Structure formats: C-alpha cells, structure tokens
C-alpha cells in the first residue's frame, strides 16, 4: 500500500495482510482512508493495523459489541456486570445483564445503524428512539432462569429485576438477531468514509454498508420503527431493507376480505411481509382479559391462487408483544396456502377451503385466515413440519386459538423494480377489462338482420307480428 516502486520486492507478510484485507470487500475504501491515516514520512501503514481487518466469526463480533456496552456502562458510572477473558483464551464473556441493559444495547445499535452522515439529523419528533420492548421481552423469556414469570402485556422494563446470564444473552443474540453486529461494522465504515471526504462536500456514492433507518408511518402502520428495525435484524444480508417501501394492502384503509387483499398483491412477483394484528379477547369490552398480539409471515415468492400449499422458502414471526422468528425446518414445504373461490368450474363435491394460511396442512394450518379476514386461527406447532417450533404469542397453549382480526398489512420487499412491474401488470389488466366491457356494433354485418336482434324483439314482445318486407 505504500509508495514503493514496481521493481521493489513486496514482503510475503505484507502480501498476506493485503490479501486478507481485500477479502473483506473494503480494500478500495481502506486505501482512500489510509492515504489520510498513513505516516507522512514513510507513506505506509503498519502491518499490525491490517491484521484486524479479517472477517471475524459471529460469536467474536458479538463479544466485541458487548465489550463496547461494558465500556459505555463503566463510563456512565454504573457497576460492572460483564467480565471478559483475554483474547488468547477465546475472549469468553461471563457475568449478567439486566433487561434495561439489553435495552441500552439495542438502542446503541439502533443509533449506529443510521448512516454516519445522518447522525447529525438524528433525534427530534421524526427520528426518536423506537419502542424495542418486544426484543427485550424476547431476551428475558429466553434467558431468564426457570421460575421467572413475565406478563409482557403488563410489565415495565425499567423496573424489572431479573438477571440474564451473559452466556444465554450471547446465544439469544446469535439466534434471534444474527445481523445485530452489522450495525457496528456499518458505523465503522461510515467513520472511515467520513475520514477521507470533504467536511463541506460529501460524496453521494459513499454510504454505510447497511442503511437500516426505517421510514414508516408510525401512526397508522403496524410496521412502526421498532418493529421494522427488529425484523431487519433477522433477515439475511441479501435483503435490502431500505427497499421495503412498497406498502401493499392494509385492511383498515383498503377494506377487509380475501378479494380485496388479492386485488392489491396480484402481480407483485417478489418477497412480501404480511402482518396480522389480532385480539384473543373482546376488543369492545375494556377489561384485563383482552390480549392483542401481532403475527407475521415472510414469503419469498408471489401469491398464487392454488388449492394446495406451495412455496420455496419463508419465515413466521411473533412480533408483538414478544419477538421470535421461526425459520424453515427443512422437513416439509407447506409455506403458503392461498385459495380463492373457483370461477367457471363444475360442481366440486369436496371443495378446498377458501382463505390464506401458512404452515401445517389443509385443515390443520398453523396460521389460518378466513375468507372475510374476520378471524385468524393459530394452532400449536405440533401440526406444522414446515416452520420451526415455538409459540406465536405468549401462553399460546396446545389447543387452537381463534382470534378476532384487527388489521392486516402487507409490505413488498422486492424494491422499486418489482413495484413498477406490478403497476404495469395492473394497467394491462385494466385495459383488457375495459376492452371486454365494450361492444363494438360495427363488428356485426347487419344488426337488423342479426339473430340477437330477433331474439331481443321476441323477448320484449313475443306476441308482436313481424311483417316481412318484400
């Protein structure tokens, strides 16, 4: 990386270090940053500075993230709760965290997930800290010792006195939010980009590795900032979460029912996120027995009108009040079921159910929505071999639960191109529909002599005598 001539022999150790740096995919950006950070006399970067650029395992990355949290808590004057072994011993973590500490960690990562150039605009009424209680409750229920009772519908995180072992928190993060460490790497990339850009003029091509700042309708949408960011942490890296702009149907705005739902998602050939808000109690009776929760399903393909299950991949989500993700188990492929009323078909003595479903089998779906989008039925994971096991809402139990649907919302994750293709498809279908509605009389040879005219006259007055013109 220095200004050495082409004839000078490059040491093998330096070539190895540069190759390791190139494997991270950030070598061009680092070269620009090193031109600023290099020693002006030697115009080189010490090799020990390059040795930290290799890809780390997910476990090691999370250890680094927890170290930053521990340093932040220590600077704030709070007692030390985490201890770390030396790097030679693997850098293992011990100790515990409180629920409020987990909330601080998540908020810290949320702020870092913003593009570094946008941090100056962070805050205010539009960019405040989101509600991440569903993530904290997920960590508490997964990591708390046996015997700890938690009612997520009536619980204050700040007042919870529950110790969460560090080892369990580590495992929970690896399973539930595997891309959380990308927030730190994206922030570091932004800092490096900032170091070689002008203070007054920023390069528009420079952006953080993962711009996870969600822009959603916080007042009317089920997908608020906290839920959007939490779901983005569970997605694979090839998903560009900033492309989830396409809001398809929302039952509270566009009307309920499978037909209304279908008219909005038809022609969208890309991954979609379906959110279902339901209540297992009487929403009209204001008492403590009402339990509201939100489920989600991620499909990787377009919806099809079929009388059987289909799909190549997908995930189920318990979103609120506790977040959990259920990935494919690999045993079956009953990912999606979507069936409309058949048209133009003969009598079927055994008709297939009309509605929307995810997982399970026909008649024993894990999540089933009726034709009118009025009720949702949630069954125990024992009936489902497609998705991983787990409760879709707290205290689900073994028996099927039938709940009242409050709202259904769909977001398209295919990006702008997929949305434009759907718009073109809808315009083409509307054109065909208009053409079928119009009758061009000029296509007939003679309307007065046509059989249709004679039949219409007979129906209007069958006793009228038709006089033949000679």
UniProtKB/TrEMBL annotation:
Pfam families: TLD. InterPro entries: TLDc_dom (IPR006571). This is TLD-domain containing nucleolar protein. Residues 221-414 form the TLDc domain.
